[in-house]
Design goal:
about 400 residues; alpha/beta; five-stranded parallel beta sheet; 20 helices; 7 strands; about 55% helix; globular
Length: about 400
């Protein structure tokens, strides 16, 4: 088992997700389309890649498309075409516009060629032709569209017509997938921001009702510590008894990427300090000085970036208020919520519903979870990182609301 802190894994490096993989495999073989959800760094891409690897051993055609860099529907069709490039000659037979010169150019050149021929007037027809042609093949086809919500949010933000174009694309995709009777291709949609909250805010939740949700949860203590011990054994790192449990307790939630990242930082700490073994005390030292320090920013700033991509500007501002409150005060309580409503009522319309929309996103994407006293961070690592960033700047919402209501406060 190799260490993987910034990439998807498969094969011998794939760890633990056998139960979820069996469920996903059964759905795909039954021809059911899936919306794969789960908070960031949970291993969504890895489980899809591993499923694809195993299906290819049985002669399936697996088309993996990452549309994070796409800006429009035409780009998505071109990305699917690029994924088809290696197998185009044996998957498609009747599409001259698609297969012409396919063997003479690279996959990237092929994508550019296809993209140049796509426009607002023909992308639907061309895309439907590709999907229909896949359905006619003897080989089973799995189509994976990764980071679709990021594309949709980008379309939404481009101009005032974004809502209509998002609706148009999702309606097309649903119609294209439901318009085939052969059970192939089978579609898996995934992404690092939530698709369901996005379509809910747009009032079009039915556009994805053909996708059966499957959520990846965090590892439990046993799985997290087993993974840590496997890594230590495979990389020759001697650890004191209790280190793996201390790592789990310190991060507070078994997010696979965070377990592996913590191991990598501990291993580097041992090498740089010429330690023969890592101790329980080293766990706290590395957590405070490395994971929460400058070296750990690349891992954690990703959460803020994705949140910015998930929400419109006004909702993002509210989200940052909620996260700062939850991190510094320990929870975003009902009292804090009333305080936030009072603070923003003079400058924004329908603040209560906006807060509800934001909380839906934060809970869906794993930033917060609903607790008895409000919303809390399930991950201690994320809570401590957010707290460190805003501790010197955040005034508790209840205090701000009292100040705003004081006589003369508006002068």
């Amino acid at each position: 088992m190799r260490l993987a802190t910034g990439r998807w894994v498969s094969g011998d490096d794939f760890f633990n997700r056998e139960s979820e993989l069996q469920v996903l495999d059964a759905r795909v073989r039954a021809g059911n389309h899936t919306l794969l959800t789960g908070q960031r760094r949970m291993g969504k891409t890895s489980i899809v890649r591993e499923l694809g690897r195993r299906l290819q051993l049985e002669a399936w055609v697996v088309l993996f498309t990452d549309v994070e860099g796409a800006t429009c529907a035409e780009d998505v069709i071109a990305d699917i075409a690029q994924a088809l490039h290696p197998v185009a000659s044996r998957v498609t037979t009747g599409l001259r516009w698609f297969t012409e010169n396919v063997d003479e150019v690279s996959a990237l050149e092929f994508r550019l060629k296809i993209r140049a021929g796509l426009n607002a007037g023909n992308w639907r027809r061309r895309g439907e032709q590709l999907i229909r042609e896949c359905a006619l093949r003897e080989q089973q086809v799995l189509l994976v569209i990764d980071e679709l919500p990021i594309l949709l949010k980008r379309i939404l933000d481009r101009d005032g017509d974004g809502s209509r174009r998002v609706d148009e694309f999702l309606s097309w995709l649903r119609g294209a997938m439901q318009g085939i009777d052969a059970g192939s291709p089978v579609l898996i949609v995934s992404g690092s921001i939530g698709l369901a909250p996005l379509v809910q805010r747009l009032g079009i939740p039915d556009r994805i009702n053909y996708l059966d949700p499957l959520r990846l949860g965090p590892w439990d203590r046993r799985t997290s510590t087993t993974c840590f011990d496997f890594l230590a054994a495979n990389h020759g790192l001697r650890v004191e008894e209790g280190v793996a449990d201390a790592v789990y307790d310190t991060i507070g939630l078994g997010i696979p990427h965070h377990v592996q990242s913590f191991f990598a930082r501990l291993r580097e700490f041992a090498v740089m300090n010429n330690r023969e073994r890592v101790t329980v005390a080293d766990v706290d030292t590395v957590y405070r000085t490395v994971l929460l320090g400058p070296a750990g920013q690349n891992d954690l700033v990703h959460y803020q970036t994705r949140l910015k991509e998930a929400l419109e500007d006004d909702l993002h501002t509210i989200a940052m208020e909620i996260l700062a409150e939850a991190a510094i005060q320990g929870a975003f309580t009902p009292t804090a919520r009333r305080g936030l409503e009072q603070c923003y009522a003079p400058v924004a319309a329908d603040v209560p519903s906006r807060i509800t929309d934001v909380l839906d996103v934060l809970a869906h994407d794993g930033y917060l979870e609903d607790a008895d006293d409000g919303f809390r961070f399930p991950s201690r690592l994320l809570r401590d990182w957010w707290s460190a960033r805003f501790r010197g700047h955040h005034v508790p919402l209840e205090q701000r609301a009292r100040t705003a209501n004081m006589p003369g406060a508006d002068r």
